[in-house]
Amino acid sequence: MITINDIAKLAGVSRSTVSRYLNDNGYVGKEASERIKKVIDETGYIPSQSAQSLRTKKTGVIGIIVPKISTETASRLVGGMNEVLIDEGYQMLLADTTLDKEKEIEYLRLLQSRNVDGIILLGTNKSSRLIKGIEEAKVPVVVLGQDVPDVTCVVHQDYEATKEMLEYIIERGNRNIGFIGVDESDPAVGYQRKKAYLDVMKQHHLTIKEDWLQQGDFSIESGYAAMQQMWENDPSKELEAIFAVTDQMAVGAIQFLKEKKVQIPRDIAVGTTGASTLSKYMEPSLTTIDFLNEEAGKLAANLLLSKIEGKKVEEKNYHRYRLLKRNSV
């Protein structure tokens, strides 16, 4: 196996010069750099990662905690992160909590034990235990998707985006509007989106019926079940529109409505959030909120790299969104 001493001998430089070149630590002349690079390319020499880690105190690994890696949202966010991190020579170590809030805390500790250089957490809650775990972390942490106090965050504007969607649904002539949400223990998707719905309905002096407030669990199946319950609770069929907090649940709701021969949006309009690939190719295509997840992932990664480098960053980073006006409203 070729060693750093061999590289130095073949390049006609000292071992310390090769070390400085490999670790980007100290001056190496242009001519010497070119000779070292040529030898490395010709020999296929790969520096020892563990040895480099000992010298630089960095492993080149970033921990990513996701609530459910199989979802398109998580995939897009992680894809955006990867674009940034791979260009900077970092690898990602993924930890999937499968929507278990306790695992968020567990993985914060576990990833630190693996000596990652930093952690990006796709948060689903703001429990005091989680916040304490972030505050006590020995490496930089960025939270994506939740507004956590005193922590560097990339925040989706859930409240503002939902308000804009509801205003658009009302603008299209709909007054009796149902809501399919998720558990409010998720402050962003569960609480903020429901609060926006309730606030807009009150501002327009529209009736809010308890029977029209249903809850799912992010899945297509739960959206179907929520719509079925709403339908059964509306014998006079006054419902004119629904807002589902995720595309997946909207798809389930639409499937139920189609089985009942309901024409969308003529009979019932459907607005949602997520801008998934499926939302574009549904019939009708879904009017939805696009949180530009790839961009959000890139922003989170860049913030984390800045923190790793000791740079000062903004604590709250509100990411933009857009309303995609399609055919379901």
TrEMBL record:
It comes from Gracilibacillus halotolerans. It comes from the Bacteria. InterPro entries: Cro/C1-type_HTH, HTH_LacI, Lambda_DNA-bd_dom_sf, Peripla_BP/Lac1_sug-bd_dom, Peripla_BP_I. SUPFAM superfamilies: lambda repressor-like DNA-binding domains (SSF47413), Periplasmic binding protein-like I (SSF53822). Residues 2-56 form the HTH lacI-type domain. Pfam families: LacI, Peripla_BP_1. Coiled coil: none annotated. This is LacI family sucrose operon transcriptional repressor. Keywords: DNA-binding, Transcription, Transcription regulation. Residues 2-46 form the HTH cro/C1-type domain. GO terms for molecular function: DNA-binding transcription factor activity; transcription cis-regulatory region binding. PROSITE patterns: HTH_CROC1, HTH_LACI_1, HTH_LACI_2.
